[in-house]
Amino acid sequence: MKGKKLLISHVKNNILILGANEIQSNSIKHIKSLGYRTIVCDRNKNSPGIKYADKFIEEDFKNKEKLLKLVLNENINYIFPFNDIGVLTANFLSDKLNLPSNGYLNSLKQVMKFRMRKACQRHGITQPYFFLINRLEDIYDKLDTVKFPFILKPNFSGGGSRGVIKVNKYEEIESSYSFSRKYDLNKEKSVLLEEFISGIEIAIEGISNSYNDFHILTTSRKKKANTESRIDMEINYPFDKYTFNKQNILMQCKNILFALGHKKGLFHIELKIDKDNQIYFIESGSRGGGGEILSSIIPLMTDIDIIKSQIDINNKVFEMRHLKNKYSCYKFFNIKFGKLIKTVISSKIKTVSSLKKLNILSKPGDVVGYFPNSLFRKDYCILFNENKRKLENDLILIDKYVEFQVEALDDVSNFNTKFINYAK
Fold this sequence. Notes:
This protein has helices spanning 22-33, 64-71, 84-96, 104-111, 113-122, 136-141, 173-181, 242-259, 293-302, 306-312, 388-401; strands at 14-18, 37-42, 55-58, 78-81, 130-133, 150-154, 165-167, 191-195, 200-210, 213-224, 232-237, 265-273, 279-285, 327-332, 338-345, 355-359, 367-368, 380-385, 402-407. With 424 residues, the protein is of the alpha+beta class. It is globular and about 55 Å long. Residues 7-11 have low confidence and may be disordered.
């Protein structure tokens, strides 16, 4: 079967969905409501999204060949991924099942960080300098070239900022390397050493019909956690200086999509803009942005059923409509490190008109304020308003009306101090 495409007949109502966690379950529910038969794959038989599955496959979708055998007779029409592991598997299966996709070989450039960097380098895209690191000594060998701080990240972690760490000084190198490499899903356990670019970090959410026909759905400006894990704690939509930088951003996105072989479908691109207004490519994903971005933020900002648009992209040209001025914030609560005693939510929260979603998952006794990667951000809210000033005022109220009462831990020896949030 290797190297050959399988001839499978297609029925136009079967969607294979890779992932079924709590946030992904919103998208699964929506896909089901559109009239599709939902075939959901997840290794966790207790995942919340399973209740919206017409058929559940209990399997780790990293196991591409095994999953292929399990879906051969399902007449799959489209495969919907939510993360980088899913992108790889979706393109692999699509190639084998004769489904339209960007192609498995291109997906390797879209998720493997070193391949991504090399592809963009070949196309002259401005980005941080980078080195592939296969052993600790490789980092020390680069210290004549590298300046502190710098970034270490796994070559392929699957997403969620897993294994990404900022290294500030010589003494942190060995422990940071050990931390980063353990998250690489490749057997080589390699990491990338990247230049740290100071500046404004922005994200672009878009969808493409072809290399020359793509559309920006929304943009955002990010605020990072007060840790060295580089995770986002507040994402504000849209990026307030997008109009000023629009042409340069559009050209950068076009070049990135072409370099990475992303011809069709949703994309998420992260850029940095330095003090001289130079735009640097940070990374991208051939999928919608993570968390609630796909299921909540993009629909709020565009009034577009973006999930249906993604499913239809190979059969119907996406046409962008005129967007009104709208504002949103995807805010993760900046909780002080410690053990949660209780969460107090004021009844006045009902008066915050911009609040669209409040999700508090941390329970009394949980360790909070520890952020080694994005998966540890359990508590968040989404605000939306057509009035920017009103949204900004409501953001202030949210912090007043949601209180996390935390006590210090007796023993912190098992926690990496680089990921502890020292917020007041």
